[in-house]
Amino acid sequence: QAQGLERIKSAGVLKIGTEGTYSPFTYHDKSGALVGFDVEIGRAIADKLGVKAEFLEGKWDGLIAGLDAKRYDAVINQVGITEARKAKYDFSEPYIASKAVLIVREDNNEIKTFADLKGKKSAQSLTSNFGKLAQDSGAELVGTDGFDQSIQLLLTGRADATINDNLSFLDFKKQKPDAKVKIAATQANADYSGVIVSKGQPDLVAAINDALKAIKADGTYETISQKYFGANVSN
Amino acid sequence: MINLTAIEKSFGDLPVLKGVDLVVPRGGVTALIGPSGGGKSTLLRCINLLELPTSGTVEVGECRIEFRPGRKVNQKAVRELRRQTGMVFQNFQLFPHQTAVANVMEGLLTVLKWPKDRAHARAIELLDKVGLAHKADAWPSSLSGGQQQRVAIARALAPEPKVLLCDEPTSALDPELSGEVVAVLAQLAEEGTTMVMATHDLRLARQIAHDVVFLEAGKVVEAGQASQIFEKPSQARTVQFISTLTEQGMAAGAGI
Amino acid sequence: MINLTAIEKSFGDLPVLKGVDLVVPRGGVTALIGPSGGGKSTLLRCINLLELPTSGTVEVGECRIEFRPGRKVNQKAVRELRRQTGMVFQNFQLFPHQTAVANVMEGLLTVLKWPKDRAHARAIELLDKVGLAHKADAWPSSLSGGQQQRVAIARALAPEPKVLLCDEPTSALDPELSGEVVAVLAQLAEEGTTMVMATHDLRLARQIAHDVVFLEAGKVVEAGQASQIFEKPSQARTVQFISTLTEQGMAAGAGI
Amino acid sequence: MPHWLQLMLESLGPLLWAGVQFTIPLTLLSFALGLTVGLAAALIRLFGPKPLAAIVRFYVWIIRGTPLLVQLFLIFYGLPSIGILLDAFPAALIGFTLNVGAYTSEIIRAVISSVPKGQWEAAYSIGMTWPQALRRTVLPQAARTAVPPLSNTFISLVKDTSLAAAITVPELFQAAQRIVATTYEPLILYVEAALIYLALSSVLSVLQERLEIRLNRQGGFVEARA
Amino acid sequence: MPHWLQLMLESLGPLLWAGVQFTIPLTLLSFALGLTVGLAAALIRLFGPKPLAAIVRFYVWIIRGTPLLVQLFLIFYGLPSIGILLDAFPAALIGFTLNVGAYTSEIIRAVISSVPKGQWEAAYSIGMTWPQALRRTVLPQAARTAVPPLSNTFISLVKDTSLAAAITVPELFQAAQRIVATTYEPLILYVEAALIYLALSSVLSVLQERLEIRLNRQGGFVEARA
Ligand SMILES: Nc1ncnc2c1ncn2[C@@H]1O[C@H](COP(=O)(O)OP(=O)(O)OP(=O)(O)O)[C@@H](O)[C@H]1O
Ligand SMILES: Nc1ncnc2c1ncn2[C@@H]1O[C@H](COP(=O)(O)OP(=O)(O)OP(=O)(O)O)[C@@H](O)[C@H]1O
Ligand SMILES: [Mg+2]
Ligand SMILES: [Mg+2]
């Protein structure tokens, strides 16, 4: 619908799909409120559009389906910008960059680079595209439901490594400083995530891009980024 | 009151009734006798349509239903017809989840919508008549064979049916009780209840039946007044069947 | 062969057998008679321990088991005892998932481990004896009451039990058939099978029983030789009970 | 206080609240509705006209044969493409009701046909209509055998409601996962959720037992048929 | 060829392969083992000594009362902390077997007690021992009522095996999720997975029907008891 932006403005709300279980991007704080980097970015964008942000939480599997079913206008949930996704959906400019890191047990000195994954077991969440990276490095995939399970597999010795983004890993280390895992390697190229919307709404994409530019310009982005990561994560 | 014409009934390929006619006048008491497997129970069940005849006509009171292979039956007519009949089953078929008195009350409450008090009073009265008032609150599972049969009789009598169908109503009763139950049934007959009973107890038949139908292999071999059948049966087969009773009766009688 | 001493049996608070003694010699035939609810079926079931007596001693053949409240029973002894007995139930209890002939074969195959051919041959022979060879492959659900009862008798006879217990073995049979079945049972008795039967059919009792026990309200009122009980009963109650038969028998007999 | 206990106590509030708000109402409503659907479906398959019975068989086949998750997905994300946009709770309710209906219909069908035909006949013989015979004579006897398998379905349902999370209903298990997301303690939180589920199903188990005892007491009708 | 069809065809291979490798063996094995456990549990509850019966009740209570997912988690992620490190497949097998055992034990218990006591007595009266009476007389009659609810459990199991994905068993549903992770077409892939599940359960439904017909033919024993 070309009038996507119009409809949002007239309704006065931007409906955003998100998981709500992906710390530190989209999660619930102790008081139960939905918070996180992506959530605050979403609120800031809505603010710039002059509407209110309304979040709908669902499982990853259904998130993008909900876009198709017009249950919400955008998904802000660390959706990586890939060619495959671009074929079906439109992305905003990237609002966050992260790097894939290779995580192993602390006592593991065998795996030092991504290439060392060859023939090893890598625990990968099925909701991310790190699995593909692991596979391309020659690892045998062990599918899990999420990062926390991948770490469990690592700790119980059922997997040798897991690949995730550096930001999630930092969050994990913040929560569990004693966990006996470490980063063995970091990928050179960053992955970028953007706001994903249904195709055919150029005005909406443009408006979101403008909003992203605006929050970067006025320091809102910097504040949010510092709050969650202690660094600027735009590049 | 009851008028069956040319009733045929087959189970699959097996013909069980092969054109049976039966007329029972209002207040009449007819006994169905004959060898095991002859079709007595089946004929009885055709009267209240627990078994649907393959063909023929069933008439009970004002209700008349004609059967032809492949023709649908009017369910309302069937219900109407059933409401005029009560039945005592060969194996009692008490409701196992209800006590004796609740079994007897069931028809009064559910079908006739009597208030509970009244139904209870009548049920107790009937149980008393069959000598079971003291077992009113017993579950069927804790009753002896004869006790179950008497509850079944009380249950069938409760809604005062115009027609009472009994399949071996005294098979589980000792001669003494059998005598008492027969007396109850005979009194009903006198009061005008029409009755058809399948029975092996020729003495029972002799005592209260007005008419007797001798059924063998799905056909009526001989029918007529009880006195006539028992005293001067016309068919050789009947003579033979009746004689077993006589011989045994004589043997027992002679001994005493 | 059978020796019951001081058998007591209560269901909950209800005493049903109040100290019954019963002795049946090898090859003896004893009839249990008495009014409905008197405890005939219960006593019968105490002999093969389908019902465990509250107290008393049960002895069948070599097996002797003593019962006392609160004492455990030796399951092996129970099985040993049961293996010498066969039983015909008041309500037949055929196995509904097996055909008539399979019902009769069941004990031979499962318990005695006979080969199939032999079991089948014997089953057919027994069905023939009770006049049901033509229904060998019928399911119990498609049999008439009398047919079911005859299959039940054949099933009980199949493993040639030393003791045969019958609960109303002719209740569903017409006089003619009853005569035939009685003949089969009488022949067994002659061949040495010990028999105890609960029955309302005083003529049956008179014909094949050597001894008669008159049971009422859980107590033996009178016991003795059949001829004695039927001809000169000593107790007033027995006289009264027997007389119902006589009167009816006379009435029927006289009419014919 | 050990770490795990503290975490459990802290999370108890949100979990219970999610249970009270969503899990319990969803379970009770969809079981009640589903049982009605199941009874109707069973009766149609046993006594209904052939074409209708065939439709019911199709319904049971589809519902039993496909994952509940996919059914919920289709109702919530699929139906909008044909113009039906349901809210999450009603969508979940429909999904669970259809499911309970399909499974219980099979159970009810089995137990109704386990009641001896003679009991129907006895009911007819005292003048009952078909619905009366069903309600007064057959169902009470069927109930006894039906209780354990039906309570299997009921107790499964309690836990299956966690699938509603997939279509944005923030029920109990979802609440647990939210906490896992920040604490990285799946085992502790899941065990806590399991304990709450256990408490809920224990209530049902106790009800089942009571019901069984009551139905058994009604003449211990094992013996009655003997 | 429309996009969705092409995607379905492309993914068919991996999905079927995952089904053949994991879903089917896991289902068949755990149902067979679970049914054995269920029968044993039912017999203990009905006829066993009190303390043993209490243990079985506890087992049924725990297993029915907690989510299968959590049970799998505890077996796979929890047991290592007490030194038991199971591979994914055996862990899943144990979890599913225990589950099937608990649910079927309730069904079997119900149908065994629905067989009239007189049938036990008839069996004893011709000299059968308890196991013989059970096997030859009671179970065949109980089977008829048991088939539909047992097949409920069986068919549920086919789909519940998808939970094994949570403990890294790459079964059918996980194979679908892997493809979703790169194609972002959950609806299409899930419907495809659902169709494969439907095919599997259809086989079971047909078996159920055959079995029912066969057991019913055995004397249509509804009437037999009438
Ligand atoms: N399981 C039971 N629970 C409670 N009471 C029972 C049970 N079984 C039998 N009774 C009672 O025990 C008494 C004797 O029953 P029993 O079946 O032995 O009588 P019977 O002499 O065989 O009678 P009938 O000639 O009517 O068959 C009856 O009053 C009956 O109600
Ligand atoms: N449902 C059925 N299916 C097939 N055959 C049946 C069915 N019911 C009865 N029959 C057969 O019909 C015949 C007549 O049975 P019916 O029960 O009417 O006999 P009956 O005269 O009452 O015998 P009895 O005196 O032994 O009770 C028997 O040969 C029986 O095997
Ligand atoms: Mg008959
Ligand atoms: Mg008796």
Characterise the protein shown here:
The complex is a heteropentamer, with one copy of chain A (235 residues), two copies of chain B (256 residues) and two copies of chain D (226 residues). Chain A is α/β, with parallel strands linked by helices and 235 residues long. Chain A contains nine helices and twelve strands. In chain A, strand 8, helix 5 (130-136) and strand 9 (140-144) form a beta-alpha-beta unit. The mean pLDDT of chain A is 89. Chain B is built from nine helices and ten strands. Chain B has helices spanning 40-47, 75-83, 100-110, 116-129, 145-157, 175-190, 202-208, 226-231, 236-255; strands at residues 2-11, 14-24, 29-33, 55-60, 63-67, 85-88, 163-167, 194-198, 211-216, 219-225. Chain B has a six-stranded mixed β-sheet, with helices on both faces. Chain B starts with a strand and ends with a helix. In chain D, helix 2 (50-65) crosses helix 4 (88-113). The interface between D and E is large, with 59 and 59 residues. One adenosine-5'-triphosphate sits between chains B (11, 14, 16, 36-42, 198) and C (142-147, 172, 174). One magnesium ion is lined by residues 40-41, 90, 167, 198 of chain B.
